[in-house]
């Protein structure tokens, strides 16, 4: 075990060294903002991802499956075999977490889902005509997915110095950054200090924010539009990306 | 009569009440085939997952019998609809705070008919009201439905024209009261005029049309000050109104009203229900600091309101009943202690138990199989359960496992589904 661990660490170090070299070379050409440093993994690269979902576990294992011969990582804390497990919600909970208080973060997410259902059901049960009823989306998960999708930016701003002047250069975003930024804006819009009624609970405001964002409305969507407007204003400097 | 009250045994086998077998089979296969690849999802951007509409449930989870005085053991585990007026009168306060948004969302307010409530109802029907008032004590784990049972019983008695005096949460009296003055009536006691006025106003709102039609009179003369006097033979509503106008005298008026109600109940003019939630808070230390030392606190027994309510809990009067709950949340004992218990003897302490003894303890258990299934049937009917897995048999089993069928925990688990 110890031998494999040291081997793993060495492997990682090599990767980092290679990476840092390449990043340095890129840095000279243009300053990259997407460079993410690799962290040391406690597992060697030979380790496989764990299988923890009940549906996956029920499927038969081939005679030639890698999982029969190679070591497997331990499952993470939030990787459990509940039916309600959702990758986006887990990401949201992780990003919302402050000071390692995951319990609180999870509670806020649960209560947000509760509030979304309550707000939508209130509209649904008060609506008398069947046609209008069918238009109301009652599924909280689908509303959250829609909201996050709507808040994703297409472009962002990168600063570049040319001839002693800082230019704001619009560049396309990576999908992972778009997801991060979308979630960030939703969290900020529902928890920030700019809120008019600070007596409201976080989950109340967050549920309203999700429902609004699913309809392309609300604070997070406005943030996205502001950024897009800024990119549009600086489109003349787009060629400074190279 | 007392043979009815017994610990409720959980019934093991229960008919499966879920929808139709074909629909549940369909959704289970969908669930089985759907595996999620995290990396793929994040790379291509997470898309809106498509969910198939689920067939309507056919399970029976409601009863048309909205009159609680007609409820019997046949209605066990079924939901009955409470009229908005009844909610406004008897259940405006006292239920769990999470249930009110749910009432709003469902556009109706329903309570489940449960066995402990039925047991007490049977006792109340069979009781002889020429004998001293019987005290019923609801006890059970946190979130098992003690307050809901109390609300059901208040609805039961209220629909039969009982006068109802309700204290939604007794510990409030000795935790959050802002206005406290030394009593003028008796030395060493503390008055809380605002809280007493609140109790009087609640008495008026819960029994508003009834108190006026009954036209109860006072039995003696009360002298509040040199000019303010309540004569013998004045209406009881006038006395209550006086307490609401002159808040300074509200704690003493409360005592007078309780005395009058006891006398009227004893003479058979009216029946009175005393409903107190978290009664064990009346034998606890308060959070109010004494003047002589920062480290000494007043005891709840020194509060005037508590003393008056204890007059009501004595069994020296006839023609009524009192229903109390003992709650773990109402005590300031160390709840992390593994030796804690939800039993009345532990929560009331020696003094409280001696005072209330004899009483009829009624255990409020967690949901049985039938009740838990009925609860989820109702949630499904109201479209509260949205996750497709929640409509399958396996999903239900998972929810029951996560919540231990505790009503509050089951609701908390169902938030995510």
TrEMBL record, chain A:
> Where does the source fall among the domains of life?
Eukaryota
User: Signal peptide location in the record?
Assistant: none
Matching entries from SUPFAM superfamilies are given as: Ribosomal protein S7 (SSF47973)
Q: Which Pfam families match?
A: Ribosomal_S7
Question: Cellular component terms, GO, for this chain's entry?
Answer: ribonucleoprotein complex; ribosome
Keyword set for this entry?
Answer: Ribonucleoprotein, Ribosomal protein
Q: Which GO terms describe its biological process?
A: translation
**In this protein, which residues make up the domain named Small ribosomal subunit protein uS7?**
84-235
What are the TM regions of this chain, as residue ranges? none
Similarity comment text for this entry: Belongs to the universal ribosomal protein uS7 family.
Q: What is this protein called?
A: Small ribosomal subunit protein uS7 domain-containing protein
- Naturally occurring in which organism (per UniProt): Capitella teleta
From TrEMBL, chain B:
**Keywords of this protein's UniProt record, alphabetized?**
Mitochondrion, Ribonucleoprotein, Ribosomal protein, Transit peptide
The terms describing its cellular component in GO are:
mitochondrial small ribosomal subunit
Q: What is the lineage of its organism?
A: Eukaryota, Metazoa, Spiralia, Lophotrochozoa, Annelida
Protein family: Belongs to the mitochondrion-specific ribosomal protein mS29 family.
Q: Supply the PANTHER family for this chain.
A: MITOCHONDRIAL 28S RIBOSOMAL PROTEIN S29, SMALL RIBOSOMAL SUBUNIT PROTEIN MS29
Q: Which GO terms describe its molecular function?
A: structural constituent of ribosome
What broad class describes the main subcellular location of this protein?
A: mitochondrion
Provide the protein's localization.
Answer: Mitochondrion
Q: Which domain of life is it from?
A: Eukaryota
Under what name is this protein listed?
Answer: Small ribosomal subunit protein mS29
Question: Could you give a single Gene Ontology term from the biological process aspect?
Answer: apoptotic process
């Amino acid at each position: 075990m110890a031998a494999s661990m040291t081997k793993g660490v060495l492997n990682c170090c090599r990767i980092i060294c290679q990476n840092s070299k390449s990043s340095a070379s890129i840095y000279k050409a243009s300053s990259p903002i997407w460079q993410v440093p690799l962290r040391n993994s406690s597992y060697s690269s030979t380790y496989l991802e764990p299988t923890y979902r009940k549906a996956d576990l029920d499927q038969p294992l081939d005679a030639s499956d890698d999982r029969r011969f190679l070591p497997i990582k331990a499952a993470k804390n939030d990787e459990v075999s509940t039916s309600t497990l959702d990758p986006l919600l887990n990401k949201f909970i992780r990003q919302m977490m402050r000071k390692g208080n995951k319990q609180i973060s999870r509670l806020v997410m649960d209560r947000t889902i509760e509030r979304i259902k309550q707000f939508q059901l209130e509209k649904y049960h008060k609506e008398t005509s069947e046609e209008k009823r069918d238009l109301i989306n009652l599924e909280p998960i689908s509303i959250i997915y829609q909201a996050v999708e709507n808040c994703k930016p297409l472009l962002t701003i990168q600063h570049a110095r040319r001839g002693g002047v800082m230019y704001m250069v619009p560049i396309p975003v990576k999908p992972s950054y778009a997801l991060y930024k979308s979630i960030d804006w939703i969290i900020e819009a529902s928890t920030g200090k700019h809120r008019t009624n600070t007596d409201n609970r976080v989950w109340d405001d967050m549920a309203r924010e999700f429902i609004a964002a699913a309809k392309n409305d609300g604070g997070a969507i406005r943030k996205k539009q502001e950024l897009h407007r800024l990119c549009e204003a600086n489109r003349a400097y787009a060629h400074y990306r190279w | 009569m007392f043979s009815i009250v017994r610990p409720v045994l959980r019934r093991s086998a229960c008919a499966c009440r879920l929808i139709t077998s074909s629909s549940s089979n369909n959704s289970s296969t969908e669930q089985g085939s759907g595996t999620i690849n995290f990396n793929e999802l994040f790379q291509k951007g997470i898309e809106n997952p498509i969910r198939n509409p689920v067939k309507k449930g056919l399970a029976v989870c409601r009863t048309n019998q909205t009159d609680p005085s007609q409820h019997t053991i046949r209605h066990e585990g079924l939901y009955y609809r409470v009229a908005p007026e009844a909610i406004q009168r008897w259940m405006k306060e006292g239920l769990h705070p999470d249930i009110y948004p749910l009432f709003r969302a469902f556009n109706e307010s329903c309570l489940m008919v449960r066995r402990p409530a039925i047991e007490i109802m049977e006792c109340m029907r069979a009781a002889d009201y020429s004998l001293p008032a019987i005290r019923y004590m609801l006890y059970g784990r946190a979130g098992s439905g003690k307050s809901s049972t109390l609300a059901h019983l208040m609805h039961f008695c209220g629909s039969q024209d009982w006068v109802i005096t309700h204290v939604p949460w007794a510990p409030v009296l000795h935790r959050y009261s802002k206005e406290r003055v030394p009593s003028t009536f008796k030395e060493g006691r503390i008055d809380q005029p605002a809280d007493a006025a609140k109790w009087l106003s609640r008495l008026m709102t819960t029994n508003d049309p009834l108190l006026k039609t009954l036209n109860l009179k006072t039995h003696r003369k009360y002298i509040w000050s040199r000019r303010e006097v309540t004569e013998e033979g004045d209406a009881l509503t006038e006395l209550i109104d006086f307490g609401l106008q002159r808040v300074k005298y509200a704690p003493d008026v409360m005592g007078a009203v309780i005395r009058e109600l006891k006398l009227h109940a004893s003479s058979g003019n009216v029946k009175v229900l005393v409903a107190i939630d978290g009664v064990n808070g009346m034998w606890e230390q308060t959070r109010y600091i004494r003047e002589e030392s920062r480290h000494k606190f007043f005891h709840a027994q020194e509060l005037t309101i508590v003393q008056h309510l204890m007059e009501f809990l004595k069994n020296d009067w006839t023609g009524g009943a009192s229903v109390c709950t003992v709650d773990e949340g109402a005590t300031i004992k160390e709840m992390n202690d593994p030796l804690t218990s939800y039993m009345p003897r532990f929560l009331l302490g020696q003094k409280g138990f001696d005072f209330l003894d004899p009483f009829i303890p009624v255990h409020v258990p967690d949901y049985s199989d039938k009740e838990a299934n009925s609860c989820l049937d109702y949630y499904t009917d109201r479209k509260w359960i949205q996750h497709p897995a929640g409509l399958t048999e396996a999903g239900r089993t998972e929810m029951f496992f996560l919540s231990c069928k505790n009503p509050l925990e089951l609701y908390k688990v169902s938030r995510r589904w």
